[in-house]
Write a structure and sequence with these properties.
Blueprint lengths: L4 E4 L2 E9 L4 E5 L2 E3 L3 E3 L2 E5 L11 E6 L5 E7 L4 E9 L8 E4 L3 H26 L15 H23 L3
Antiparallel strand pairs: 1-2, 2-3, 2-10, 3-6, 4-5, 6-7, 8-9
Length: about 170
C-alpha cells in the first residue's frame, strides 16, 4: 500500500493502512492543545474515507494506544471490559490491520517513536502541574518550567518530524 497524506478538517493526516472492514486508517498531525500540551496519536476513519479532504464527519476516532499494546475486549459474562493477554508490538502486528503503508522496520520505529511521545508528553505534564494528579494534595512540587519547555519545544517536535518522515510519500 502506498504512503499518502491528505487534509481533514484543517489538519494534515497520514495514511497508516486499511483495517479488516476495508476502511482506511489515518493518523492526525500533532496539535498544541489548551496552551500547555501536545495532542497526538489520534487515529481516525472519515466518512469520505478515500478523500479525507472531502469528508463531512469522522466515523471513528481512537488513539494510537488502542492499536498497539495489550488490547481490551468486552467480557460478556462479567459485563465489563478486560485486558487481553496478547501484546501487539507494532502496527504491522495488529490483526485488525489487513494492510499498512509501512515496512516492518518502519513499523517498529513508528511504535518506538509513539511510545517516546507518550512518555515525553506525560513527563512534560508532570513538570507543568508539579505532580501526577493522583491526589489533590501533594507534599512534593516538581514543577519545572524549563524542563517542560525543553520537552515541548525541543524534544517532541523532533519526534513528530521523524514520524512525519516515516509516514510521508517519498
Amino acid at each position: 500500500m502506498e504512503k499518502q497524506t491528505s487534509k481533514a478538517f484543517g489538519k494534515k493526516v497520514y495514511l497508516l493502512g486499511k483495517n479488516e472492514q476495508g476502511k482506511l486508517v489515518w493518523l492526525e498531525e500533532a496539535s498544541w492543545d489548551c496552551g500547555w500540551y501536545w495532542g497526538f496519536g489520534y487515529i481516525e476513519i472519515y466518512t469520505n474515507n478515500k478523500r479525507p479532504d472531502l469528508a463531512r464527519d469522522i466515523n471513528s476516532h481512537s488513539h494510537w494506544s488502542g492499536l498497539i499494546g495489550k488490547q481490551e475486549y468486552y467480557d460478556h459474562a462479567k459485563q465489563c471490559f478486560r485486558m487481553g493477554s496478547d501484546y501487539i508490538h507494532h502496527l504491522n502486528d495488529n490483526p485488525d490491520m489487513v494492510e499498512t503503508t509501512l515496512t516492518d522496520k518502519e513499523s517498529w520505529e513508528l511504535a518506538d517513536l509513539m511510545n517516546t511521545f507518550y512518555t515525553l508528553r506525560d513527563t512534560a505534564g508532570l513538570f507543568h502541574s508539579g505532580n501526577s494528579h493522583l491526589t489533590s494534595v501533594s507534599g512534593l512540587d516538581l514543577k519545572n518550567e524549563q524542563q517542560e519547555e525543553y520537552i515541548n519545544k525541543e524534544l517532541l517536535p523532533k519526534v513528530f518530524n521523524r514520524v512525519y518522515e516515516i509516514l510521508s510519500p517519498s
